[in-house]
Specification:
about 450 residues; alpha+beta; Triger factor/SurA peptide-binding fold; Chitinase A, domain 3; 3 domains; 4-stranded antiparallel beta sheet; 11 strands
Length: about 450
């Protein structure tokens, strides 16, 4: 479960901790888990291991070194740790409580015979963590050197350490997910005061809201002439007839398909759910049985022939051949002229909604509200948005989208500078997070009531 210091909408602390683990262990003068409570007589004296049990859960001891390791982890992750000795002692006691909760959940997962964590899952998560940590070093030499400084004799020793952390994390995730699905762990709604208190206590450490832009876009599609459309339909019908006679679907897709994203893969689209494709394609694809080939399907992209490979309850795996009408320079020039007329009409005060209905491709999103400009995938649109002011009509700009050409006219609605989130902006996220935390804490309290727990932290 997320800790009370998790960022708004962030991943659970356990996952963040795993990804930060390398930084936590590879800081200046780092120490191994079993050595992290070491005390030196002076700066020239080697560390001397001093460790002790700070809690017992069932028959499992929790060592002080594990708590010191978490402090190193938080420090490496940029956390603001207490500097006062009394506050630091209180922080250690908080970490002991968290370690006890984690151990209770891990033990519960191990007792549940339906909870299965495979070695493949552990290895995959460990590999991802190790890769992320390794990428922060300029060379293998620097990476291995810092591992040795940290007390790990080899990369294999470090991998074993990561592997155990991954296994415990996966066990916790699996049992919590199961119990939430079975309504054993249920959200407990926080009060308004609790949400306010959380917001006030954490807002200083939360990330800033990024700068955003809002705009409407009119996507004027570049279309072929009626003759080009007829020619594309004729070719699609010819290919379908060949497929009905037993031609190889993959081979024809590689030879004829106009979809640049799937052509070289023989039309392979992979697995997808309902709603991920345009409606005409979606409707036909989900009506087919495995191995079945559709009739010719017309969409705004052109003419498709669809073959479903496999079917699951919620998704399918399919291939397609796309035959798009041929587009000429004259077609592009004609469309650009049309888009210029749309922009001129908009500047003259024409209804934005009417122009969208008349001129914009119906399959494209037309309103973008408070989106992060840098996250937009269309460089030409990003370029014209810079420096725009509310009410500006921008473009048309030429954009290619999944092999189709468009001239896009933009009505700029405004920009919002980066800054702190307000309570109202994050209220729903805080409510969801605290509700889960409160439900999770009730589960922990129940486990604690039926398990021997002894905390020995002064």
């Amino acid at each position: 479960m997320p800790s009370s210091s998790a960022t708004f909408g962030s991943a659970p602390r356990a996952l963040a901790a795993l990804l930060l683990l390398g930084g936590a262990l590879l800081v200046a003068r780092p120490v191994r888990a079993q050595d992290s409570a070491a005390v030196a007589a002076d700066s020239s004296t080697p560390f001397k291991t001093v460790d002790r049990v700070v809690a017992v859960v069932g028959h499992t001891p929790i060592l002080l070194s594990r708590i010191e390791e978490q402090i190193n982890l938080d420090r490496a992750g940029g956390g603001h740790l207490p500097t006062d000795s009394a506050d630091l002692a209180a922080y250690r006691r908080q970490l002991v409580a968290q370690a006890v909760s984690e151990e209770l959940v891990v033990q519960a997962a191990l007792k549940d015979t339906t909870i299965k964590v495979t070695q493949q899952q552990v290895q995959s998560q460990t590999d991802d963590a190790l890769k992320s940590i390794r990428s922060s070093f300029p060379s293998d030499y620097d990476f291995r050197r810092q591992l040795q400084v940290a007390g790990f004799g080899s990369v294999d020793a470090f991998r074993r350490y990561l592997s155990e952390r991954s296994r415990r994390q996966l066990l916790q995730q699996a049992i919590v997910q199961k119990l939430e699905q079975n309504q054993v762990i249920r959200p407990i709604q926080p009060t308004e005061e609790e949400m306010r208190q959380y917001f006030d206590a954490t807002k200083a450490s939360q990330p800033q809201r990024p700068a955003t832009v809002s705009f409407h876009a009119i996507w004027v599609p570049v279309e072929g002439t009626p003759g080009a459309v007829d020619s594309a339909r004729t070719l699609a019908d010819t290919l379908l007839a060949r497929l009905r006679r037993g031609a190889d679907f993959t081979a024809l897709a590689k030879q004829y398909s106009d979809d640049p994203g799937s052509k070289e893969q023989g039309g392979e689209l992979g697995w997808f759910r309902r709603g991920m494709m345009v409606p005409q394609f979606d409707r036909v694809a989900f009506s087919l049985k495995p191995g079945q080939i559709s009739d010719v399907v017309q969409t705004s992209f052109g003419f498709h022939i669809i073959k479903v490979e496999h079917v699951d309850p919620t998704e399918i795996e399919a291939r397609h051949i796309l035959i798009a009408p041929k587009i000429t320079d004259a077609d592009r020039a004609r469309t650009e002229q049309r888009a210029d007329s749309v922009a001129a009409a908009l500047r003259a005060g024409a209804s934005l909604d009417s122009l969208i209905r008349r001129d914009s491709d119906p399959d494209q999103q037309t309103y973008f509200g408070e989106v992060i400009a840098d996250s937009l995938p269309w460089q030409p649109i990003k370029a014209v948005l810079k420096g725009a002011t509310r009410g500006d009509v921008l473009g048309p700009v030429s954009v290619s989208l999944r092999g189709r050409g468009f001239f896009v006219v933009i009505h700029f609605e405004g920009a919002r500078a980066a800054g702190p989130y307000t309570f109202d902006e994050v209220r729903d996220q805080i409510r969801t997070m605290l509700a889960r935390q409160k439900g999770y804490q009730r589960y922990i309290d129940a486990l604690r009531a039926e398990t021997y727990v002894s905390v020995r932290m002064p």
